[in-house]
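R.M. (postdoc): so does anyone remember the format we settled on? I'll just put the structure tokens first.
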């Protein structure tokens, strides 16, 4: 019998890509969505259920019979984290407890402060310096507590900044901007400072491989991905220029404007909090992942960035 996965956030970057890979591997996909109809461009073979991740009864009901719950849902544009993030994970934990399912969570680097830099292992101290980071630490703490006290299984896969998926909450799209073809690259980092990126299909493939080895995972499992490491900030720029077929000029990212815009624009205020992640070279240590899987899925830079830029073009054309 095919396994069933409930996907929360099935229209987002990680949720949609992981659902696609699970389905191709023989899983039945059940997707929770607030609209009653199948979202435009989404897979018609999924079992689309009307519901909201903020409604515990709807999440628990949708999870019945599932052995996996993909918790890939976040408030759009970084808005409403304080009010929504923790209630949503509490609902997912309740659903996993009822269904005896494992939770898969895409992890973030926000959990860590400078005391964990520059090379971050899974057991590094989590002393965040932002509001979002503190919320994510609380979220993961709830998963760990549920695992220890109730045996609720979870898997956290942590990676760098996503590219190659939908533009929501995505730094890659901040680099190339909304116009097509792009007129320049707005790079947020300092010259010579490394930055870690994560190609969405590679992240989803890593999650798939870990999920299919369920009997080898601890109750509370955490793994870090190396992803696409840009040692000095130039590799992503070079790859974007090659994919665009032109020598795009580099423009400074307008951090100064976020201070002003953030007074009335919540997304801008939240983005500005993340500046510290662009000011120092920070890497995730994937030693544990390599030990478990033997290798990490990795699409070459040119192919990955070309796909990401094409996805941005398609999004712009659809507007």
């Amino acid at each position: 019998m095919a396994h069933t996965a409930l996907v929360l956030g099935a229209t987002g970057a990680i949720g949609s890509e992981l659902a696609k890979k699970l389905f191709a591997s023989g899983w039945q996909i059940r997707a929770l969505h607030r609209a009653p109809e199948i979202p435009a461009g989404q897979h018609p073979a999924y079992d689309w259920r009307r519901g909201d991740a903020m409604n515990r009864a709807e999440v628990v009901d949708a999870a019945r019979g599932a052995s996996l719950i993909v918790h890939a849902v976040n408030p759009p544009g970084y808005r409403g984290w304080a009010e929504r993030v923790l209630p949503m994970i509490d609902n997912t934990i309740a659903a996993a407890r009822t269904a005896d399912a494992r939770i898969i969570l895409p992890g973030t680097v926000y959990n860590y402060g400078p005391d964990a830099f520059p090379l971050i292992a899974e057991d590094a101290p989590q002393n965040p310096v932002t509001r979002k980071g503190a919320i994510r630490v609380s979220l993961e703490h709830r998963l760990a507590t549920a695992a220890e006290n109730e045996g609720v299984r979870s898997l956290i896969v942590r990676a760098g900044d996503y590219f190659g998926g939908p533009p929501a909450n995505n730094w890659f799209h901040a680099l190339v901007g909304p116009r097509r073809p792009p007129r320049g690259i707005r790079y947020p980092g300092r010259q010579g400072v490394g930055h870690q990126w994560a190609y969405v299909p590679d992240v989803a493939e890593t999650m798939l491989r870990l999920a299919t080895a369920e009997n080898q995972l601890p109750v509370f499992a955490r793994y870090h991905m190396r992803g696409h490491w840009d040692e000095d900030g130039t590799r992503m720029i070079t790859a974007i220029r090659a994919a665009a077929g032109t020598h795009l000029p580099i423009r400074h990212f307008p951090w100064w404007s976020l201070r002003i815009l953030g007074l009335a624009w919540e997304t801008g205020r939240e983005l500005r909090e993340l500046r510290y992640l662009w000011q120092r070279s920070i890497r995730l240590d994937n030693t544990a992942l390599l030990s478990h899987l033997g290798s990490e899925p990795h699409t070459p830079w040119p192919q990955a960035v070309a796909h990401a830029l094409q996805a941005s073009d398609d999004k712009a054309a659809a507007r």
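R.M.: ...and that's the designed sequence above, right after the tokens. Also worth knowing: Residues 131-150 form the longest helix (20 residues). The chain has eleven helices and 14 strands.
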